Amino acid sequence: MPELPEVETVKETLNHLVAGKTLEKIEVGWPKMIKRPDDAEAFVMMLSGQKIHRVARRGKFLSFVLDDYVMVSHLRMEGRYEMAAGSEPDKHTHVRFHFTDGTELRYRDVRKFGTMHIFNPGEEQTSLPLSQLGPEPVNDPSFTPAYLQQIFAKTSRTIKTVLLDQRAIAGLGNIYVDESLFRSGIMPNKKARLLNNGQIAGLHKEITATIAEAIASGGSSVRSYVNGQGEMGMFQNQLYVYARRDEPCKQCGTPIEKMIEAGRGTHYCPSCQR
């Protein structure tokens, strides 16, 4: 699933590709993706004639800011926006956005897990799914070591479970949680409430740095992720542990191990993380 750095990269690409364009026609091939309104025909009518002013991001969600509405989109596992290049849409193209200038934006999703919601401006922040999100790990003044101390003290869950919880921190997923914990020297299955203040401060620093570095590299293309122009991210070349099982740790040479934590495959170095 694309995480914050990947979705941020898609946001920037879409702003370059579609901001300022006006929607002429929308085709929905898989109506179950449309969650609000609960009718695909109403979705099409609401968007027709609307101009896209900009694309924003909150956590792993994209928000298309239009004349009269905001469309909130989640890519889920395999969702992808791409400009049509003159070819016929394949069977995985489920929503087509036709613009008045003759160009077309397509939403492709192999697993059909993606979602789209339409809100009146401002309602998207106080309604599900965005209303349940925690602070952002970058450029958000509320994301502080003190905030982490507060949420960790209230739970009996492991640190990885807490960091994956979008209600606690918006945008983190399996890749960047594993990487941040490695860089902090913290085992993923350690109870969050057992971290001392020094460990929490270090973790806060590494989460912020890891996400910032990944954004600068265009995200991580470890499976199918590409941006709206079909370009891969490059941060996978800088990963310390994620998807590196049995490979030597870049810091100590110990083979990277994998376990299941929080229901997810979790990579760690048994020497560097204790």
Brief synopsis:
This protein is α+β, with helices and mostly antiparallel strands. The protein has helices spanning 4-18, 40-47, 123-126, 145-153, 159-164, 174-184, 197-216; strands at 23-28, 34-36, 52-58, 61-66, 70-74, 80-83, 93-99, 104-108, 115-119, 257-261, 264-268.
Describe the protein in words.
With 274 residues, this protein is α+β, with helices and mostly antiparallel strands. The chain has two domains: 4-132, N-terminal domain of MutM-like DNA repair proteins; 145-268, Helicase, Ruva Protein, domain 3, CATH 1.10.8. It has helices spanning 4-18, 40-47, 123-126, 145-153, 159-164, 174-184, 197-216, and strands spanning 23-28, 34-36, 52-58, 61-66, 70-74, 80-83, 93-99, 104-108, 115-119, 257-261, 264-268. The strands form three sheets. A five-stranded mixed sheet has the order 2-9-5-4-3, with helices on one face. A four-stranded antiparallel sheet has the order 1-7-8-6. A hairpin with a 3-residue loop joins strand 4 and strand 5 (70-74). It is elongated, with a radius of gyration of 20 Å.
Keywords for this entry:
274 residues; DNA-binding; 11 strands; Znf_FPG/IleRS; 8-oxo-7,8-dihydroguanine DNA N-glycosylase activity; alpha+beta; hydrolase; single chain; five-stranded mixed sheet; glycosidase; Helicase, Ruva Protein, domain 3; N-terminal domain of MutM-like DNA repair proteins
Helices and strands in order:
Layout: H1 4-18, E1 23-28, E2 34-36, H2 40-47, E3 52-58, E4 61-66, E5 70-74, E6 80-83, E7 93-99, E8 104-108, E9 115-119, H3 123-126, H4 145-153, H5 159-164, H6 174-184, H7 197-216, E10 257-261, E11 264-268
Parallel strand pairs: 2-9
Antiparallel strand pairs: 1-7, 3-4, 4-5, 5-9, 6-8, 7-8, 10-11
Helix pairs in contact: 1-7, 6-7
